[in-house]
């Protein structure tokens, strides 16, 4: 019985050590791209999310997260913002939207590989969560279901 428990413990140790090795395996392409785009970033912490990679960091006093595909190509970056960094046109558009009475969980400035620069509101109404996107002029662009 003890030998079976010991064998199980050894196998579990090898299995879990293999998982942790996968977590830190970030493509050089992603690391190099991040270094070029964000040379002054501080406290960069990479994560392997199985289907993509992210790096959380601070730059210029702002907390941000860059998302990379599995091949190491950049997909988008989101920077958390407050009311002071949200353009008036965007705030006004949100106040006129059908989501104006929903709880605002978070606001972010999002730049993606399609060269879009958008302001994103994460809103919640009960169990329903959405991402609402506006351009800098306050034009509604799209909404996505949030998890």
Structural account:
With 147 residues, the protein is an alpha+beta fold. 28% of the residues lie in helices and 41% in strands. It is built from three helices and eight strands. It has helices at 2-23, 28-37, 88-96; strands at residues 42-48, 53-59, 62-68, 74-80, 103-112, 117-125, 128-134, 140-145. It has an eight-stranded antiparallel beta sheet. A hairpin with a 2-residue loop joins strand 6 (117-125) and strand 7. The protein is globular, with a radius of gyration of 20 Å. The termini are far apart. The model is unreliable at 6-23 (pLDDT under 50).
**Helix and strand run:** HHEEEEHEEEE
- Indicate the radius of gyration in whole angstroms: 20 Å
Q: How many individual helices?
A: 3
Specify the oligomeric state: single chain
Query: What structural class results from the helix and strand content?
Result: alpha+beta
| Global shape | globular
Provide the helix percentage: 25-40%
Q: Order of strands side by side in the largest beta sheet?
A: 1-2-3-4-5-6-7-8
Average pLDDT for all residues: 87
Binned strand content: 35-45%
Biggest sheet descriptor = 8 strands, antiparallel
Unreliable stretches (pLDDT < 50, length at least 5) are 6-23
Rounded to the nearest angstrom, the distance between the terminal CA atoms is 45 Å
Q: What's the total count of β strands?
A: 8
């Amino acid at each position: 019985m003890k030998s079976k428990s010991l064998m199980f413990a050894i196998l579990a140790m090898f299995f879990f050590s293999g998982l942790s090795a996968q977590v830190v395996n970030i493509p050089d392409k992603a690391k190099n791209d991040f270094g070029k785009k964000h040379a002054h970033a501080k406290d960069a912490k990479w994560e392997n999310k199985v289907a993509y990679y992210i790096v959380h960091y601070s730059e210029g006093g702002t907390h941000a997260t860059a998302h990379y595909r599995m091949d190491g190509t950049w997909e988008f970056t989101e920077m958390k913002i407050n009311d002071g960094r949200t353009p008036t046109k965007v705030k006004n558009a949100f106040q006129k939207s059908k989501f104006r009475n929903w709880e605002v969980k978070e606001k972010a400035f999002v730049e993606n590989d399609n060269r879009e620069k958008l302001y994103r509101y994460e809103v919640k109404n009960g169990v329903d969560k959405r991402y609402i996107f506006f351009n800098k002029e306050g034009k509604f662009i799209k909404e996505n279901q949030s998890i």
